[in-house]
């Protein structure tokens, strides 16, 4: 039995966010959310529980190791959602580690985590990325670059843009600004690729 694609996504997101998790508490991102396990031992009366341990998989009432892992990943997904460490739209999960990098660095970090740089294809996906941009009050690169035709932009796989949210009179780089950044109001601007912006990945 194999893990579902959704659980693979959550596991990848969890490892991407590990720098923000220390002993079950979020380090430097958002306030930790008090929660209790959905199943199992409820006798612990502490106000906060640690993020579920994904290593202790053997020998409990939840069945074989695969089912146990799926159960724990599902719980972890709930914690991440409640803490707004992840957002979701259009079947994608979006996440940030709170760090900044230039465009190439952002692509590398997202790829290392098993994802790709966030590229909105709808207003809902744009809003999912905007949540992090607003929270950190900074800009983020999108997975969009200029095509071989100056001033025309496309997804990184070469596909045409089916959705855009350009700021007024943008793009305006006249071929000299090959990347795209998101402003704190959710609109887009073409920009040089060497600026350090918030890393936002999609899974």
What can you see in these coordinates?
This protein has 203 residues and is of the alpha+beta class. 27% of the residues lie in helices and 22% in strands. The strands form three sheets. Strands 3-4-10-5 form a four-stranded antiparallel β-sheet, sandwiched between helices. The chain has a four-stranded antiparallel β-sheet with strand order 7-6-8-9, covered by helices on one side. A two-stranded antiparallel ribbon has the order 1-2. The longest helix is centred in the middle third of the chain and has 18 residues, at 65-82. Mean pLDDT is 79; it is low at 22-60.
Topology, please?
Blueprint: H1 5-16, E1 21-22, E2 25-26, H2 65-82, E3 86-89, E4 92-101, H3 103-112, E5 116-117, H4 123-136, E6 140-146, E7 153-155, E8 179-182, E9 188-191, E10 197-202
Antiparallel strand pairs: 1-2, 3-4, 4-10, 5-10, 6-7, 6-8, 8-9
Helix pairs in contact: 1-2
């Amino acid at each position: 039995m194999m893990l579902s694609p959704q659980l693979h996504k959550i596991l990848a997101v969890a490892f991407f966010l590990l720098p923000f998790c220390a002993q079950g508490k979020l380090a430097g991102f958002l306030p930790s959310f008090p929660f209790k396990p959905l199943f199992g031992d409820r006798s612990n009366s502490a106000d906060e529980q640690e993020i579920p341990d994904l290593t202790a998989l053997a020998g409990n009432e939840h069945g074989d190791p695969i089912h146990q892992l799926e159960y724990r990943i599902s719980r972890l997904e709930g914690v991440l959602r409640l803490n707004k460490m992840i957002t979701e739209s259009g079947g994608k999960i979006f996440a940030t580690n709170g760090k900044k990098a230039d465009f190439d660095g952002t692509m590398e970090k997202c790829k290392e985590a098993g994802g790709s740089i966030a590229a909105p294809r709808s207003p809902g996906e744009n809003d999912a990325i905007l949540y992090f941009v607003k929270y950190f009050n900074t800009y983020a690169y999108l997975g969009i670059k200029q095509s071989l035709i100056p001033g025309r932009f496309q997804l990184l796989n070469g596909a045409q843009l089916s959705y855009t949210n350009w700021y007024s009179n943008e793009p305006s780089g006249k071929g000299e600004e090959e990347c795209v950044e998101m402003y704190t109001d959710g609109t887009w601007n073409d920009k040089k690729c060497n600026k350090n912006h918030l890393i936002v990945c999609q899974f």
